[in-house]
Specification:
Number of helices: 2
Radius of gyration: 21 Å
Number of strands: 23
Number of domains: 2
Structural class: mainly beta
């Protein structure tokens, strides 16, 4: 009986720690993929492709409020003492995505590549967390209609410089978005669908993401291409709902430290200007900051002038006729 009681307690504890909630559109009653769940303190998590996320007071005992948001919807504020199983977000007419209709003609085009900057130095890499979004600027250097065919993403799959026999396997889910150029910084988000993709330990260090079917054209003022890690995928390819932070005891008390994810992102000092921006996605204002000496005086990447993520592009330059 004691064993049975202990097993029952363990089962109940697992249920409490794995409460699943679903974010839905209030009008269509359909799941909202990869909605943002902010904790109000600069931390947070994401729903998966089916709009599901897990939250537990045992995981985050100091969090009393959730801020649920998604593009085209009004933010909803919910107390963690009473979270409904189905969280419905009202549509925000002012933020509903535009519909881009692009009728591509069969035209000749020339292919042009903007080379990525790849290296394998752990100490020159950005350690991705769910908190940060990184955006890289690309100008439009021609009058011809220019479509992004592929995006080259430098990656480092190992977490250190030590040689290993294959390394630990992983599959990480990323989200890609596109922004206008607003006086040299990322501006309005362009009305393309989120591009969700996986990177694994088996991928090449110059990862190529084919985005041709999304018909992303570079505006006259240039474009910012951003990537953001959502977390690891489970064995079925879905976003894992795991704790995204761990607590570290310091002299000033307990500090929340973000979990870092592989692959690492190589930064470079081989690009002259500052074309890389970053922002914290769970803060309310979500302000972009240029990754330069004003960003931080203590950041080791910036100290060594590794201020740009070496993203590259494959472009299709179309003839006018």
């Amino acid at each position: 009986m004691k064993k049975l009681f202990l097993l029952l307690l363990l089962f109940l504890a697992q249920i409490v720690c794995s409460q699943t909630y679903t974010v839905l559109d209030s009008v269509q009653n359909t799941p909202i993929s990869f909605a943002t769940i902010s904790f109000g303190n600069g931390n947070g998590t994401f729903a998966d492709a089916d709009g599901n996320f897990q939250f537990s007071k045992k995981w985050y005992p100091d969090i009393d409020t959730l801020y649920i948001s998604a593009l085209g919807h009004k933010e909803r504020v919910i107390s963690t003492t009473l979270i409904p199983k189905k969280i419905k977000l009202a549509q925000d007419v002012s933020e509903l995505k535009e519909v881009i209709i692009t009728a591509e003609k069969k035209r000749r085009y020339k292919t042009r590549k903007i080379a990525s900057e790849v290296h394998n130095d752990y100490f020159k890499c950005w350690l991705p967390t769910v908190e940060s979004e990184i955006a890289v600027f690309f100008p439009k250097n021609t009058q011809k209609p220019t479509k992004i065919a592929s995006i080259y993403l430098p990656i480092k799959v190992e977490s250190s410089n030590r040689n290993s026999s294959g390394g630990q396997s992983f599959s990480t889910i990323f989200k890609m978005q596109f922004y206008t150029n607003d006086m040299g910084a990322p501006g309005k988000r362009l009305a393309y669908d989120d591009i969700i993709f996986n990177v694994t330990n088996k991928d090449k260090i110059n990862f190529e993401l084919n985005v041709s079917e999304h018909k992303v054209y570079i505006p006259k003022g240039g474009i910012f291409v951003s990537i953001q890690v959502l977390g690891y995928a489970d064995k079925n390819g879905k976003l894992q709902q795991t704790k995204k932070y761990h607590e570290v005891e310091t002299r000033k008390g307990i500090v929340k430290v973000s979990t870092t994810f592989r692959p690492l992102l190589p930064f470079t000092n081989k690009i002259n200007d500052y074309r890389t921006f970053t922002r914290r996605v769970f803060f309310k204002n979500r302000t972009w900051q240029r990754f330069d000496p004003e960003y931080s005086e203590t950041n080791n990447l910036i100290k060594n002038n590794n201020t740009n993520y070496g993203m590259g592009l494959k472009l299709h330059l179309y003839e006018d006729k």
